[in-house]
Design a protein that fits this description.
By secondary structure, this protein is of the alpha/beta class. Helix content is 39%, strand content 14%. The mean pLDDT is 95. It binds farnesyl diphosphate.
């Protein structure tokens, strides 16, 4: 059925890009080939999210736990990330803001520099926010926010009794941004795996059997159509 032109306008979607390894294995290819295809799909889907008018999209590219993988695989993912950083995610001529979520100090200093430049160059843009989570973990993010609050309280700049959910949310990597309305995890897994633990409180989740390298705009359309059929109550009735 054709979608209403505004079917996705203003929504925020989180995407856990999963299944690259299985996709490669099914084809007798090295896992890194799955990540390469996954990165191409990332770019296509990011472009599509912009086209359908999402307010923001959050891609989970590398978690704080992914360092446990073999060094060769970690190196390949980071090299791919570096290539896309150099191209500034093909967003140079668009109206998108790019934001990186996660602990950057552990990343290659050249990558850190490019990340800072891309964020600075796109900071005033008013279109979709493209968030890319790299060396990101939800628990790490909340712990960091708690540490920032404690430091401010110890310095006398913050009254602990005045801390609200908003005060804490303003210290997350996503400060000022909308929570995801919908979180997708292709590949059939049904776990958040430390992704946006705070922000996902009321996110809808949709089953997705497709592996990330096979993910197409039609899969996103179907997930959003399902989201649009749901009734969100936020704890009410
Ligand atoms: C999960 O699949 C995927 C990752 C841990 C890496 C995702 C990275 C990219 C798509 C490329 C780099 C990112 C950008 C933004 C250019 P998996 O390896 O866990 O798959 P499996 O569960 O089938 O083994």
């Amino acid at each position: 059925m054709p979608q209403h032109p505004d079917f996705a306008r203003g929504l925020s979607v989180g995407i856990i890009m999963d299944g690259n390894g299985r996709w490669a294995k099914q084809r007798g290819l090295p896992r890194t080939a799955g990540h390469k295809k996954g990165a191409e799909v990332f770019q296509q889907i990011a472009d599509y999210c912009d086209r359908i008018g999402l307010a923001s999209v959050y891609f989970y590219a590398f978690s704080t736990e992914n360092w446990k993988r073999p060094a060769e695989e970690v190196g390949a993912i980071m090299r791919l990330f570096g290539e896309y950083l150099v191209r500034a995610f093909d967003y140079k001529s668009r109206n998108n803001r790019i934001v990186f979520l996660g602990e950057r100090a552990a990343l290659d200093p050249r990558h850190q520099q490019l990340m800072a430049e891309i964020e600075r160059d796109t900071a005033d843009r008013t279109g979709m926010v493209l968030n890319i989570a790299v060396n990101y973990g939800g628990r790490q993010e909340i712990t960091r926010a708690a540490r920032l609050l404690a430091q401010e309280a110890a310095a006398g700049r913050l009254d602990p009794a005045a801390i609200t959910e908003e005060t804490l949310a303003a210290r997350l990597y996503t400060a000022g941004q909308k929570d995801p309305d919908l979180i997708l995890r292709p590949s059939g897994e049904k776990r958040l795996s430390n992704f946006m633990l705070w922000q996902a409180a009321y996110a809808e989740m949709v089953d997705m059997e497709v592996l990330w390298p096979d993910f197409t705009p039609a899969h996103l359309d179907a997930a959003i159509a399902e989201y649009n059929r749901r009734s969100r109550r936020f704890g009410g009735i």
